[in-house]
Specification:
The protein has one domain: Histone deacetylase domain (Arginase, Chain A), CATH 3.40.800.20. It is 39% helix and 12% strand. The chain has an eight-stranded parallel beta sheet, with helices on both faces. Helix 6 links the parallel strand 4 and strand 5. The structure holds zinc ion. Zinc ion (ZN) binds next to loops.
Length: 310
Amino acid sequence: MKKIYVALDDLLSLYSFPDHPFNNQRYFAFKDTLEKKKLIDLLGIIEAREAEIEELLLFHAKEYIEFVERKEKEGGYLDYGDTPIYKEIFKASKVVVGATLNCIDKAIEENTKVFNPVGGLHHAFRDRASGFCVFNDICVGINYLREKYKIKKILYFDIDAHHGDGVYYSFSEDPHLYIVDTHQRGIFPGTGDRSEKGRGKAYGTKINIDLGYGATDEEYFEELEDIEDFLGDIKVEFILLQAGCDSLSGDPITLLNLTENVHRKVTKILIEIANQQANGRMVVLGGGGYLISNIKRAWITIIEELLKNR
Ligand SMILES: [Zn+2]
């Protein structure tokens, strides 16, 4: 039986925008629920740390990293109005990446599965912040897996209600990063049309499923049949799941009608692939989700599923 790990370190609570849907109540609600349900006793704990500048440089531009550090003292926004600057934002953003890298190290070291509730900042690009995301821990993580562990074939599955544009466009021409991204059509960032399947020699290595307003589990599971066909044709060495729960019914900033059963089903499918192909190695990242009860429901469901299949 493998030990399942979760990144729980109050350093992660620093990534919290004031008067904003992305705040540290999300992290604390998740932590409290793990404690109340006594799941915490069954899990190993991963500490967070600030990512080194050299690690950020695996994906981000030097000028952009310096821009974030400089802007922290100036205030305002890092983008056009979604990502406000606050004291310690530079440190907090490095902590998210450091935690995800620690999770990757642990997944490799013990051939197991690890969850970082504050990771999954899928909108950040190489040279800019976007949509509550400063540094893209997923993209840094992908390049880290390749540099440090020589792992090339990776599956990135994103079930957040928003399209993971920062990941998709950064790797759209990379044939070894397989992407499955399901999201709500017509909301921020407005990308991820079904016709977007990767570019050049990577064409066909990515799937975007844009769900209509109010899509239900039933509709999702229909899409999942095609996705499973796609997954059946690929071979991967590592899996990353961005498990945003803003795709659940009742989220204040999105309009899908999914339940945590989607999170359960996707997790089950990915566990099986990880165990068959990737030595059991998988890192789950919390992503978005702004209704606290949905955070408790969806992320805890994933933890329970990971524990069940140790
Ligand atoms: Zn989202």
